UniProtKB/TrEMBL annotation, chains A, B:
It comes from the Bacteria. Residues 154-228 form the HTH crp-type domain. GO terms for cellular component: cytosol. The lineage of its organism: Bacteria, Pseudomonadati, Pseudomonadota, Alphaproteobacteria, Hyphomicrobiales. CDD domains: CAP_ED. This is cAMP-binding domain of CRP or a regulatory subunit of cAMP-dependent protein kinases. GO terms for molecular function: DNA binding; DNA-binding transcription factor activity; kinase activity. SUPFAM superfamilies: cAMP-binding domain-like, Winged helix' DNA-binding domain. PROSITE patterns: HTH_CRP_2. Keywords: DNA-binding, Kinase, Transcription, Transcription regulation, Transferase. The keyword Lipid biosynthesis does not apply.
Amino acid sequence: MLGDLTSDFIAAPFMRRLNALVGLSDDDKSAILDSLTDARTARPRADLLRADDVIDGLSVVLEGFACRYKLLPDGRRQIVAFLVPGDFCDLRVLVVERADHAVAALAPTTTASITRDRLLSLVNTRPRLSRALWWSTLVEDAILREWLVNVGQRAAIERVSHLLCELYLRLEAVGLAADGRLELPVTQSELGDALGLSTVHINRTLRELRGQGLLETNGKSYFIRDLARLARVGIFSPDYLRVGRDLLEPRPDRY
Amino acid sequence: MLGDLTSDFIAAPFMRRLNALVGLSDDDKSAILDSLTDARTARPRADLLRADDVIDGLSVVLEGFACRYKLLPDGRRQIVAFLVPGDFCDLRVLVVERADHAVAALAPTTTASITRDRLLSLVNTRPRLSRALWWSTLVEDAILREWLVNVGQRAAIERVSHLLCELYLRLEAVGLAADGRLELPVTQSELGDALGLSTVHINRTLRELRGQGLLETNGKSYFIRDLARLARVGIFSPDYLRVGRDLLEPRPDRY
DNA sequence: CGTCTTGTTGACGGTGCTCAATGAATGTGG
DNA sequence: CCACATTCATTGAGCACCGTCAACAAGACG
């Protein structure tokens, strides 16, 4: 285990994520926290996991920013997910031995791991934890479906707006964004690879959003001036981020 | 249970799918087959499951063709998956109570169900079955990621070719396609909604593929004249359809 | 036998891509 | 600490891919 790390500030986003998992007891939470081992920090552009790698355990992002991606033989790249602190790298390790896609750090990224055996024994002895882990894969799936809708149906300005709304809410949920401000340690080229748009067009689209007074950017700092309006432009509804929660649960009325 | 249905020809694709699931015993197979109940046939365009529906059990497609889809408020539709015989409608029922997307029949489609309680007791008493079900959700995820790559990175002719290769292999795997021939009971408009292309452009792309001698179409019958070449055009590699199988397993050399 | 859906094709235009150049920022090695 | 290289953001020009609109034919269906 990581010793002091479990009580350390660095695990805060992961803690917040665990708290959000339905029905997880304090006992479950400390069981999984205590199983974290082997913390390491990857530099930007470093692969955390390569396609066809044999997976030997479950990794959790504690700090930083990463992505899943697939490459075509000619070099085109599609980013299929962004991983923010608190996200799991490869939950499918429970069933599958090899990855079908790669995971790369986009910013300096700290991860910690749980060995496969430890994880299997956790889910076997703690049904609620097992359920919670499955639940978080379902949220991931829901995000993936929404990304397909985004890339398949929305125009460029809608895609960018939608992604910004999603990332703002996800980062806010783990305490890494507030008051419309968020840090996105990704290049415009990476945004393009996630949204199926060219770098040049990402740049022009961001300029358009700034021109409409919806957004301010300064390097990798983003400031959403009007979340409700940005959500309208992006035809964004946050429901998919809360799969399985009671749909009638009161929600902030910002969209 | 469905009585005669379990031994009936109609369950053949589902049987073939079960046989393909890793490590499933005959006992497991008959347990799940015997749990099938409440067979019903939906007409084309009928919803099998609506967004926000409370899910009361697991449905299996026995015959026909269906899709998962999400709608935007203005009517745009993205099809996020095709369901062929042997596919499950809503495996997430195990964890989540409500659907975040809809499922619709595209052809006359027969489904059978397993009640939630029965399913839960099956997975609790049969670890291999539980593992096999999770495995099939992972294959679904892999297909979803590949669709995102398809829509995000590939040009129209590549997208159509890729989808045709995928559907041919999936249908062949359950005995519904052979010798390059397959039936796709979908309209060109539905292909467009799956690939993020307009109906008109689907039509032109199919014409182009016919012109290149790669494909023949006759209504909803498709004949792939040269699978290897179509796969090359679509930059198609079948790996993602076999997530978790040994990557060294010998494969037909058709791509 | 009308009506509706689907497939097909043409014309036209726009969204977004490619190519190219520039400057700023960042990183690296001497 | 500076010289140099590389990455990244930004903008312009030109054009291609694909969408929209429109029309018509052929089935499918009641």
